[in-house]
Amino acid sequence: MTHEIAVVPGDGIGQEVIPAAIEVLETLDVDFEFIEAEAGDRVKAETGEALPQETYDLAASTDATLFGAAGETAADVILPLREAVDSFVNVRPATAFPGVEAVRPETDLVFLRENTEGVYSGREDRLTEDVSTLTRVVTESASRRLAEYACEFVTEHGHDGFTVVHKANVMRETDGLFRDTVTEVADERGVETDEVLMDAFATQVCLDPGQFDVVVCPNLAGDVLSDLAAGLVGGLGLLPSANVGPDRALFEPVHGTAPDIAGEGVANPAAKIISAAMMLEYFGYDEEGTAVREAVEAVLAEGPRTPDLGGDASTADVTSAVVERL
Ligand code: NAI
Ligand code: MG
Q1: By Cβ atoms counted within 10 A, which residue in 90, 127, 199, 287 is the most buried?
Q2: Global confidence as pTM
Q3: What integer pLDDT is reported at residue 99 of this predicted model?
């Protein structure tokens, strides 16, 4: 079966790491049809729109989207694109790589972050010159959908259970509903859970990340805590992510457009290539996904390496080394 893939490089190093990922995917025996589309600062300067309707429609109709990064217009691009795939969960692994310097090399976490509501539901008001407000929306249905995904995820990937991170002691209604729904779904399915308050989690994950494995959390907490965990494994440059919906998904590196190095051909393609491995696994190509991960890990450990990891190799050198290992 051919999978149709929307390819949206965007701006800056998005234009450099996307071709690297495509080159890796094209060495595999999988049937992908890539359809390229535009988004970001450059297309906004040309047409006035950061996310052309054609690009939105493409992401909403293809089987998956590979996204690079967008610059100033990132929020105008990525939030609607996540909506186009109806993404209800943001999957963010934070795993240290052997041989790559990390604050906490033992870190091996996966965040499953609610991706549609909480304080990011866009319900903000400016009531008076002095007063602004935000409505935090948490629904049972979104919490349930996330929990069902989390249960499938831990079962499929052989984890013992998951940790629910929340602040239900203060946000009793919203995070109370979140915690109760998530733990109830897990109980129904015989999946083990424990709970940690999100502020305590921030400290504990820094001191001893090894005590956590899969972490399920509301939108803002997941955004902040997964970036914190990214710091523990050596920064944002190596981390992939997936935005999963019921029928399609969007895969992106966690990093942005890296304007300081864009155009120089030295961007580290690892995050984007591992995002492509997540896409392979999403389609059930587990063997190919593992092969890509192992090839990237080997290249990160043994080189060649791009300058962000202390080497002097180019994006193309690293990509060729990954392809060679495959
Ligand atoms: P950034 O991730 O683009 O860069 C932060 C630092 O990490 C820079 O020094 C950069 O050179 C380095 N870096 C990032 N990825 C790298 C890679 N693959 N290889 C080597 N070095 C890498 O974040 P920053 O500087 O905060 O944002 C730059 C622009 O990107 C902004 O316009 C921002 O809006 C946008 N952005 C877009 C995102 C998206 O489209 N999802 C996400 C984050 C930022
Ligand atoms: Mg973030």
Answers
A1: 90
A2: 0.94
A3: 84
